[in-house]
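Thread: "does anyone have the structure for this chain?"

Original post by V.I.:
We have the sequence but no experimental structure in hand. Need at least a predicted one for the grant figures.
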Amino acid sequence: QVQLVESGGGSVQAGGSLRLSCAVSGHTFRNNAWFRQVPGDNRDFVALINSDGSTMYGDFVRGRTTVSKDNTKNTIYLEMNDLKPEDTGLYYCAGDVQKVVGGGWLLPYKGQGTHITVSS
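Reply from O.Q.:
Generated one for you, tokens below.
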């Protein structure tokens, strides 16, 4: 059974930091990614890490976010610094994601998410 279980969310003041974790099991992914969902809004791409360790980031987090993985623990991390109120949302990790024509993403596997609230 494929599972992705996120943790590490919470409430933080603007300028603070959080590190999210995603424990994966049941499948070896060629990539893992983080997305952010805000109610009533589109899903935002946050970051992606490939099996070779290469990474890419969404525009709204680039420069203050780091995605990493620990293969010994089967865990993906997302460290976010200098958090802003507009970063608030449900963050979830996904596996084997594909970007599609038009800018969307296919997420064949994803977790339930962990919520971040950033107050000003």
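V.I.: this helps a lot. The mean pLDDT is 95.
O.Q.: and DSSP finds no helices and 13 strands in the chain.
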